Amino acid sequence: xxxxxxxxxxxxxxxxxxxxxxxxxxxxxxxxxxxxxxxxxxxxxxxxxxxxxxxxxxxxxxxxxxxxxxxxxxxxxxxxxxxxxxxxxxxxxxxxxxxxxxxxxxxxxxxxxx
Amino acid sequence: xxxxxxxxxxxxxxxxxxxxxxxxxxxxxxxxxxxxxxxxxxxxxxxxxxxxxxxxxxxxxxxxxxxxxxxxxxxxxxxxxxxxxxxxxxxxxxxxxxxxxxxxxxxxxxxxxx
Lengths: 114, 114
Fold this sequence. Notes:
The structure holds two protein chains of two kinds.
Chain A: E1 4-7, E2 10-14, E3 19-25, E4 30-38, E5 44-51, E6 56-59, E7 62-67, E8 72-77, E9 86-94, E10 103-104, E11 108-113
Parallel strand pairs in A: 2-11
Antiparallel strand pairs in A: 1-3, 3-8, 4-5, 4-9, 6-7, 7-8, 9-10, 9-11
Chain B: E1 4-7, E2 10-13, E3 19-25, E4 32-38, E5 44-51, E6 57-58, E7 67-73, E8 76-81, E9 90-97, E10 103-105, E11 109-113
């Protein structure tokens, strides 16, 4: 059974810092990995989706990398801003079986302070 | 981009009543819809997967008689929480996928059972 863990569970940084969020998964047979953002009481906003054949994806100040063999992904946020404060979730989709089911990580709650 | 809506965004009901939550894909036809549940400060847990015109597939531990799912069309799925009790209070999120590549998430429904 796939298990997805995110470290740290919570993070507080001053504005302007570069930071890294970590996601690890136990079964490397994945189809893709996705990073989401969730604001309090809201749904999910997709940030980046990395296919299993890719090593990284970039969007603006965000960069996500994937090392499938070691079961790890990182989300790099450059020049953090207070508006980046949210919970960040990673999710993996299995390569075979399970349809398009996603297994979500435990989440990292980020606070960027002025 | 693909948009998924949920209605209502929040609902308060008395213990013992039933509550229906709607999930709609607004600009695409969803071959599959998913229902998740999220407790405070926890990650998303998949409850069930539904395909249009067929019975939903429930995850282990989810009571299918309590959480009724109907996927009557390619753009609408409903989740009915029957005989709701306070322990059913939670944040319910749906998602939809069009071509088995990516899930698009709704904004969520906050259910409070008194």
